[in-house]
Amino acid sequence: MAPYEMGKLHRILLIAALAVAAPSIWAATPCYGVDRGITNERKAALGPGIARQLNVMHVDVLESWQFGGWSIIYVDTHESDDAFLFYSHDALTSPYLTLWGGVATPDEEREVKDWTLKNAPGIPPRLADCFAWHVTHDRGSRSN
Fold first, then answer.
1. Does residue 122 sit in the same domain as residue 75?
2. Which of 40, 42, 56, 76 is the most exposed place for a label (fewest CB within 10 A)?
3. Considering the domain boundaries, does residue 121 fall inside one?
4. Among 60, 53, 67, which residue's Cα sits nearest to residue 82?
5. What is 65-110 written as a DSSP string?
6. In a domain, 50, yes or no
7. Torsions phi, psi of 85, nearest 5?
8. Cα separations (Å) of 97 from 79, 84, 130?
9. Distances in Å between the alpha carbon of 1 and those of 8, 34, 143?
10. What is the 3-state secondary structure (H, E, C) of 2-44?
11. Cα(80)–Cα(78) distance, rounded to whole angstroms?
12. Are 26 and 53 members of one domain?
């Protein structure tokens, strides 16, 4: 095989190896399988109801995590610290169960998960894991 063809073959093999490895790298996060997407339309629909629940004038929905019928909605009230609201049903039709605000360091991941399981009873463990990982390791890296 000519040197040019060997180089081309190596590039193809490298690309194939990266394509196979990429999903397993993402799967390694606790958020694998958690729906972290939210449309602008859904944000607009959730904002007024959440504002009423929090007794504030306006809410910007920043992010959302959904899994197993549960959701966590991250909001900015413009009146207090941003907050994560936990819902066991649709946030459009049910009140939040608990909220969490503040910051956490990477070594507090276990404590955040324990807090989540205690204060949002029945939350799917995968969603609790994802939340704890997000606020201790991934915060600020996603914006929707």
1. yes
2. 40
3. yes
4. 60
5. EEETTEEEEEEE-SSS--EEEEESS-TTTS--SEEEES---GGGHH
6. yes
7. -105, 135
8. 20, 11, 18
9. 11, 47, 48
10. CHHHHHHHHHHHHHHHHHHHHHHHHHCCCCCCCECCCCHHHHH
11. 6
12. no
Q: What is the pLDDT along the chain (144 residues), one digit of tens a residue?
A: 555 555 565 565 545 444 444 444 445 789 999 999 999 999 999 999 999 999 999 999 999 999 999 999 999 999 989 999 999 999 999 999 999 998 899 999 999 999 999 999 999 999 999 999 999 987 655 433
Shared domain for 10 and 65, answered yes or no, is: no
Give the integer Cα–Cα distance in Å for 50 and 93: 10
Q: Specify the number of domains making up the chain.
A: 2
Same domain, 20 and 71: no
10 and 45 housed in the same domain: no
